[in-house]
Specification:
single chain, alpha+beta, Alpha-Beta Plaits, 2 domains, four-stranded antiparallel β-sheet, about 35% strand
């Protein structure tokens, strides 16, 4: 796997149908397909870049007016997949960065931009479960790196028009870290 693609819809039936079209159109593997808060549905696939681009391109017209967002990330950082699965190990308690987006797909692409921009470790990418259709991700590292990563994520999110809020906490209380994992 060197690329991931994702479609997010605001209709569960449309999301399932778009996912079916994605999987039938190209040699990709299903990473995740699920209903999330606020009646959204996400489908994430992986594979080589051309196949993932083709799958997302073929799924978008099937989603039609129910399409909320879509992404293709070539050369996705390994941390992104681990953080989506909430399997990241949290090392030293360092500065904490939190980025919140209005779309789930935007959170994934913003997290990828963040880890490519600075030496940070993703803790988790939370995709719309119990969040009213929003998503967020958390990361840690030294203060300068976290600030740079949050800035890169913000730029990416603003390009999609889906940024909600960001914060950098230079020295978070240890109980805040415990609450995150």
């Amino acid at each position: 796997m060197n690329a991931i693609g994702m479609i997010e819809t605001n209709s569960i039936p449309a999301g399932i149908e778009a996912g079916d079209a994605m999987l039938k159109s190209a040699n990709v593997e299903l990473v995740s397909a699920m209903a999330v808060c606020a009646g959204k549905y996400i489908v994430m696939v992986s594979g080589d870049v051309a196949a993932v681009k083709s799958a997302v391109a073929d799924g978008k017209p099937v989603a039609g007016n129910f399409l909320v967002d879509d992404i293709v990330i070539p050369n996705v950082e390994d941390q992104v997949i681990t953080a989506i699965a909430a399997c990241s190990e949290v090392g030293d308690m360092a500065a904490l960065g939190i980025v919140e987006t209005y779309s789930l797909a935007s959170a994934v692409i913003c997290a990828d931009a963040a880890v490519k921009a600075a030496d940070v470790s993703l803790i988790e990418i939370r995709l719309g479960r119990g969040l009213g259709g929003k998503a967020f991700f958390t990361m840690n590292g030294d203060v300068a790196a976290v600030k740079a990563a949050v800035e890169a994520a913000s730029i990416e999110g603003e390009e999609h028009g889906m940024m909600a809020n960001t914060v950098v906490i230079p020295s978070p209380h240890k109980d805040i870290y415990k609450a995150l994992y």
